[in-house]
Amino acid sequence: MDYRQQLASLLGEDRVTTNPTVLMNHSHDESYHPPHLPDVVVFPQSADEVSAILQLANEQRIAVTPFGLGTSLEGHAIPYAGGISMDFSLMNQVLEVRPQDFLVRVQPGVTRTQLNRELKKHGLFFSVDPGADATLGGMAATNASGTTSVRYGVMRDQVRDLQVVLADGRIIHTGSMTAKSSSGYHLTGLFVGSEGTLGVFTELTLRVYGIPEATMAARASFPTVQDAVDTVVDIMGAGIPVARIELVDERSIQQVNLYKETSYPENPTLFIEFHGSEQSLAHDIEFAQNISAEHGCTQFLFETDSKARAALWDARHNLAYAFLHKSPGKKMMVTDVCVPFSELAKAVVDARQAIDRSGLDGAVLGHVGDGNYHAILMIDVHDAQEMARAEELNAHLVEYALSRGGTCTGEHGVGVGKVKYQRKEHGAALDVMRSMKQVLDPNAILNPGKIFAN
Fold first, then answer.
1. 366 — alpha (psi -120 to 50), left (phi > 0) or beta?
2. Is position 404 within any domain?
3. What is d(CA 75, CA 73) in angstroms, rounded to the nearest whole number?
4. What residue stretches are annotated with the FAD-binding PCMH-type domain (predicted)?
5. 12 to 8, 45, 61, 127, 214: CA distances (angstroms)
6. Which helix (H) or strand (E) holds 296?
7. Does 25 fall in a domain?
8. Any idea what DSSP says for residue 433?
9. What is the tens place of the pLDDT at every residue in 180-226?
10. Which one of 23, 48, 269, 447 has the minimum C-beta count within 10 Å?
């Protein structure tokens, strides 16, 4: 019996498909990396079903690629080895909210927005905000972060426990509901960020937070990128408890104005958000405004109204789509790197200069409060010369970051796009990672080709 027929007998024919449209929908993510069709798409509803699927796949050496919503940016969900694309859209339940413990248990297909709608009823929120409405399973798999990581930390900081199905079908838990533990190896930290190469997540226990009493957002414009980044360094050094502090350069603002029909000054701009009490926020805003003025800030506006704040952040979050929608026929290459905070100002300026030298249309933006910055490049993937220039620019940004003690990716993950930099960044530690992969997935069925070169 063909393995696809065996899958149908396990799940039922309605949750196993080779429909060409469904296969195509699972052949790509939001990156520029070329698509590849899976052989079959499955829709499990429980950990036991995931276990049965993996046992079958492991016995027959069939590749399995987990799929959330396909919002990844480095090809994580693309099934380059064919095989099974495992879609978690039917495992999308918020299983338990524990307000007194500030914890929530969810299935991997729950999205960030869906979770926050449920948490709002309890006066709580989930902090990690990567911009896209990604699934929480996918966010844990890539150790996502985003705009709020400067205050609340990245995905790895929020995950208390994972239910993981291993390649041979074993179901394990990696942690507990406690705030800390000195018992055994920190398996949760190992699996978060493993990009589906060590196991498949079927349940997550996550830390959540009380909704702050007051929230204010500000937009500050500067003459140069250097002025903007120096302001960030001084705000962080002053201990102002910002919840978000985001940089967009002049080219980014131009694109926002074109796409959203706004009229923001077309200068390097910081988007800042403050969480706290009304009394403390008034002081924080004034302090940040004074620091900004010292660095030549040309406009500093803040918003307390929720709709106005939402509009402000909507402009930042939709920046990538602003480039896509206004660049017909082109794909978006988004690369991210992270450097020590002391290196940030020079790194961002270098990135802007490198884009200008390349002749490509691109922008610099990022979560500069934690040293993580991005370059958006609009490219014609059918133009070999343009692709070569984009790859050269990407390599320059990575090499720059690594040479200053940074990392080739601060939040997007390795996928296939950053595989080539793993040896240079990790050295002999990469062999240790390979050894772990070999122990947990000896037949190399779990998301093959990601993180490690085949």
1. left
2. yes
3. 6
4. 34-211
5. 5, 11, 22, 37, 50
6. none
7. yes
8. H
9. 999 999 999 999 999 999 999 999 999 999 999 988 889 999 999 88
10. 48
